[in-house]
Design the sequence.
């Protein structure tokens, strides 16, 4: 069984399939889900204009929030500055240093993404 959701970031839509085993594991540990996405898009960066690029997007969300469906007022998108990947800047896997996990625990569906250019 798979839980499915449609998530929209700007003009890019992602189809997300969450295996029930991941949901069960997150529910058992109490930790937010960590889902990594690669979103295909056509680049507008001058060096690769018109070419297909994959944007890396990480999602952190509590299982009960992922299953809720209507998240229009509880979504956060974090975009890094130059030089540091979003995963490193916002989802540090040490103690309680993850902004993404903190916001997910507060009931938000949280995304961080790396951009090109």
Sequence:
């Amino acid at each position: 069984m798979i839980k499915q959701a449609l998530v929209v970031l700007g003009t890019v839509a992602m189809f997300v399939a969450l295996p029930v085993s991941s949901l069960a594991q997150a529910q058992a540990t109490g930790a937010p889900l960590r889902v990594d996405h690669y979103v295909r898009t056509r680049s507008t960066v001058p060096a690769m204009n018109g070419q297909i690029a994959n944007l890396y997007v990480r999602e952190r969300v509590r299982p009960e929030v992922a299953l809720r469906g209507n998240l229009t007022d509880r979504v956060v998108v974090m975009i890094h500055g130059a030089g540091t990947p979003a995963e490193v800047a916002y989802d540090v896997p040490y103690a309680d240093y993850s902004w993404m996990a903190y916001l997910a625990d507060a009931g938000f569906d949280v995304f961080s993404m790396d951009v090109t250019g």
